[in-house]
TrEMBL record:
Belongs to the outer membrane factor (OMF) (TC 1.B.17) family. GO terms for cellular component: cell outer membrane; efflux pump complex. InterPro entries: OMP_efflux (IPR003423), TolC-like (IPR051906). PANTHER family: OUTER MEMBRANE PROTEIN TOLC. This is Type I secretion outer membrane protein, TolC. Keywords: Cell outer membrane, Membrane, Transmembrane, Transmembrane beta strand, Transport. Its main location: membrane. It is found in: Cell outer membrane. It comes from the Bacteria. SUPFAM superfamilies: Outer membrane efflux proteins (OEP). One of its GO terms (molecular function) is efflux transmembrane transporter activity. It comes from Caballeronia sordidicola (Burkholderia sordidicola).
Amino acid sequence: MRLGQAYFDALSAQDSVVIVRSQKASIAEQLESAKRSFDVGQSTITDTNEAQAKYDQAISQEIAAQNDLEVKLAALEQIVGHPVTRVDGLAHGVTLPPPIPADMQQWVDMARDANYQVVLKRLAVANSQREILKAQASHYPTLDLVASYGKNSLGAAGAGNFGGNFGGNFGGNFAGNFGGGFGSGANTISPHVPAAAAELGN
């Protein structure tokens, strides 16, 4: 593939040099004709200057075409591995085999689906669409969910023992001590009640 492309590039550049040189030769004849006409007084100096300008332009085009040919030949040399001074064109009357498939639309479809530049552009479009969706999503309402999870280190047996011991000890001690003290206090205070009543009666 690279060899074929380099060959046809060099062949096209070589043909361009031939065409430019042919044009330069034609312009050179026009320049000489303009000079002769000016010498015999049949044309003005302006006509001669215009012909000279066209010839100078043809020379610059020839130099550019020759430089392009050298670049194309150098690229071909890198592929074939030996110096190349010129390339031979196709023989006259040669018949090239038709492309397979012969349907132009199939080649267009393959170029559209397999061309890496087209694939890169598609990926760029898809990425841009995702960025648009991301930007739109930033304006949507948000909802925050907070959850917590804990684990009690006391088992069922530990909880029962703690509750039973605490309730039994605290309840028994409190009821016994407080109840006993309250009952003793009642026996001590009650003898004074009749004496106070007697004094009120007198």
